Amino acid sequence: MAVKVRTIYDLAELAGVSPATVSRALAGKQVVSAKTAERIRKLAEEHGFSPSSIARNLRTRRRGAIGVVIPLGHERGQHISDPFFMTLIGALADELTERGFDLVLSRVIPDRDNWLQKMIDADRVDGFIVIGQSDQSKVLDAAASHFLPMVAWGAFVQGQVHCSVGTDNYLGGRLATRHLIERGCRTIAFLGNPRAIELSLRLEGARAAVAEAGGGVELLEIPTHLAAELSGEDIASYLDHVEKVPDGFFAASDMIALTAIQVLSARGLSVPDDVKVIGYDDLALARTSVPPLTTIRQDISGGVTHLVENLFKRIEGKATGSVVLNPELIVRSST
Amino acid sequence: MAVKVRTIYDLAELAGVSPATVSRALAGKQVVSAKTAERIRKLAEEHGFSPSSIARNLRTRRRGAIGVVIPLGHERGQHISDPFFMTLIGALADELTERGFDLVLSRVIPDRDNWLQKMIDADRVDGFIVIGQSDQSKVLDAAASHFLPMVAWGAFVQGQVHCSVGTDNYLGGRLATRHLIERGCRTIAFLGNPRAIELSLRLEGARAAVAEAGGGVELLEIPTHLAAELSGEDIASYLDHVEKVPDGFFAASDMIALTAIQVLSARGLSVPDDVKVIGYDDLALARTSVPPLTTIRQDISGGVTHLVENLFKRIEGKATGSVVLNPELIVRSST
DNA sequence: CCAGTTCATGCAATCGATTGCGCAAAGGCG
DNA sequence: CGCCTTTGCGCAATCGATTGCATGAACTGG
Known about the structure:
Two copies of one chain form a homodimer. Chain A is α/β, with parallel strands linked by helices. Chain A has 13 helices and twelve strands. In chain A, the strands form three sheets. Chain A has a six-stranded parallel β-sheet with strand order 2-1-3-4-5-11, covered by helices on one side. A four-stranded parallel β-sheet of chain A has the order 7-6-8-9, with helices on both faces. In chain A, α11 links the parallel β8 and β9. β2 of chain A pairs antiparallel with β2 of chain B, so a sheet runs across the interface. Chain A binds a DNA duplex through α2 and α4.
């Protein structure tokens, strides 16, 4: 403890070897003899020393960090407070940490189209995970054409250039709507903002399910804010102005579904007896809400694994395809 | 566009000056002549060049990044999905970005007591913002005694060593409970997990308010999970086993309050007529829920400003005191 | 017109780790 | 026992920017 060990040179002196050997020992290269390596590692441990990642990064031309960015294209000022995003980010943090990478979080309000290019130019991370394409698909495609290490969570649309990982929103929408129809709903309202590409696909799926039903079922589209916080007012004002309340609600997210249930029960309508409500995402909340929410499950941890694996493949220079996972209908008590 | 500009040397050659001058121009030092500086900056812009932050950081011995840490001491496996945290992190991201710092997010499951020291030793960031002390006050204090650049969001307790920024939880609890008493509640239930220091202070405030009322008011403590997602079951099972339902609920967070309202209305109890419910945090959700939630407001953006300012003072080596903000009672329709 | 400042810029060392190349010692083999 | 391969380690260049010090030009004033 006499001397302070700040660099591998200090440690090298202590161990009586060259800094090169220290570097190799700490990096676990097999060229150093096992005993030397062990001795050096023990010494490092004792002195609470770990080599400067900055210097390493400079030399190896890697950053050791992944940028996680959330664009908020559809609504200015929307906060990323949806538990779905939080859950995704939490899982990403675990996965990236495990691989020895930092998670650098950026929140972007895409005022100009070059926000992504600027982040790429800044060159502070090894790659990007973009959460939610929102309405920024063109920007992502533009960047993807010359920048490989980027993967987006979200929808896959035909012809897209960038790599995406997500669930099949169209199928999810169809599953949800078909379920409502099977439960006897004849007037179904879609709650969500179709400006976000993911949600518009869910809406299309809903339309398909209605069409498959072969008539007798009506689909209404109720535009709401994407921020679940704000959807309550939208729903309430819709109910105020409609003559006949729909008997089924397909909410584009669990948060919206929960809000809808609150609004409905405040008006004396019982879920699921009078009205049926299905959500989307299968957040932890959905399982324990009252009533427990029927919903479409997106496999977050599976998705995160794919996101990270594809990103690292791309960092190594290998191209990857997009991944479309299957959503799953989870039937609980709200339908 | 002929040559590729990767380093200040490339740019220096293009501009016909030395790399030193380029460095100074880009850093905005006043010693370079205005025209040279302008010319160099324009050139950099044209080539989408920005100097390597890694190399800069190595030379200047700074990291350009702040670690944001969320410890999860009270409950294993709890996910940081509470919108409160998300909102806080979003605000932090904005504030730090504005100051030119990256936000490195780490999620920590404090299995051993040295988790914080390890992060400090890793030396990848200039400072830490710890969100929510949870039950890790001792760990924070231990680190704070020799490590300055760290600020925690959360409670202030007498004698703590580390710097905290937060609202007065004791006062908040008192305000909330006093409000319920004024509204006529005589049996008040506290919903929350007092293992988290912040929540136990709110509970103490509640006790104080009850004491001030001078008898006739009863305070019940209903232990719930801290994860709001899981509190529904706790509340439901409590209601199943109690003979007389309380007429007032003080929920330790808005999410728990909303859950409570759902559970209550599912049992045919009307809020606020039969039972009054007050929350905590004043999330965006609270304003638009049904009914709109009476709650205790924590000023997040003000808090974030204090967090960041104190942290940067500490990074510069100046000690700072803790900040205790006043919470505010927001009366809406749930009480 | 000259000595003393001021101003803008260049030189070169430095931050701390990584790694290609070379060398010496040790081991293998006939 | 002598030659060739393997093994373990050290030398020194390198990653890209910053910055104290030096230098020469321009400027000031007498």
